[in-house]
């Protein structure tokens, strides 16, 4: 009986009855269940994730108490009654039900664009041509009050609430009331990848939600660090959507307050039409993107069965991308060379190469895409937070963006004698200052923004780090959005070869969750006892590399060093919109960075 009634929730039209059943189930014994299958929404939900004993973390900005996302049953019932009363009042007044049915009424935009895409309805039969983004796309997030120019997307258009069957959601910050207005919890099964300080908090989070609809995954953590990844896996009737946003699951990160913007990568993967197609695909080597993604999900502790169902989707179009990630913890010894066996490997009957996290993984991904470069490169990095940055970190990212595995920076650093690197006369500091630009907003830019200083609390940098002698002051630039008055929370890196006159020169963009910090990208050091390299990352992060398209007939003309080194000349070859104004102003004494703790 319990199983039958749980299944009824997905198709129940009576909201009150559906919520009553969900609450009853959450208070009683969990129905017999196995796992979430990303191709079937009529199967039971998975059992609670096993305890992974994560430790407390230090966060850079306040986040909503997850109290399991605040999804306590009493509050859910109160909110439902409020919505019901609001709907009845609207029906008696204007007769308009659609607007009143929204859980939370928000200010209307001044644009005429619909809230959902009109082209996202797939045909009943799996067909890649009918998918919204079969080859992948990068878009800015929509911002209230800003014109829609075709390069932005709303959270409603990403999630597609009316069609969403299953979802795996990750975030550093959460707004549960807002999220409940974007997802139909009656029809959509959810797995939240979230942080919990201890087992007691995990149990509190699990017990405060209907277990037939919502599950949790708690990745292992270090004593300091963040579950900063924002990956989304969204399952629909005949395809899987992978979304990698730079923003969290809060309204201001998705433009609804009109003060902040982000970016998001989206790709839609069709489901195989039959078992024969699936077996043919399994006989081939995984794309690097798929291999990294599967390894990352398994390392986070997602249910084995959930990860294995990803095999039922065609990842062939991800061959043009790379999935770059950081995993909280230390990675050393044989993990640099050996082949790792994860739970997913056992299910698939194959082994996955152990993936290097952090900037070591970035270098491996650049090389795997054929984008490695021996010459100088230009690196422009837009970020929302800065840590205690030094030239070691910049050097590691610079070499990784050339395709190095991380050992080049490690060897330069560990062979230092009296402050001078043994590098054959290679003046790396001068090179880094010349070829790297890091974009972060100035105090003036924040003060003049639409939201002002009170709305920039998630843009993080401390004055003590700026004042440090080791900080690379010369690389900082003022980050000003192309949208007037909007602050950027995006994390995006643009890399291309220096001084090239040809449209075939190599280049790429990174879009993801990683800010410019050692916590996000890691640090390679010698392991005690063995003396072998070990990289430690404090955060869980993920992003995607997007290759620049070649343009063999392009005519740059003029002075190549002036034109090609200007990022605007590179923009036409990217499938990533440039979010910042060019040319940027340097930060310094006359134009200081924004320090969120100073107000």
From TrEMBL:
One Pfam match: Tyr-DNA_phospho
Annotated positions binding substrate: 230, 491
Residue ranges with Low complexity bias: 54-70
Positions bearing the site annotation: Interaction with DNA: 517
Active site (UniProt): 228, 489
Domain PLD phosphodiesterase: 484-520
Segments of this protein annotated with the region Disordered: 28-123
Ranges of biased composition (kind: Basic and acidic residues): 71-82
GO cellular component: nucleus
GO biological process: DNA repair
Compositional bias ranges of the Polar residues kind: 104-121
An example molecular function term from Gene Ontology annotations: 3'-tyrosyl-DNA phosphodiesterase activity
Protein name, as recorded: Tyrosyl-DNA phosphodiesterase-domain-containing protein
Source species taxonomy: Eukaryota, Fungi, Dikarya, Ascomycota, Pezizomycotina
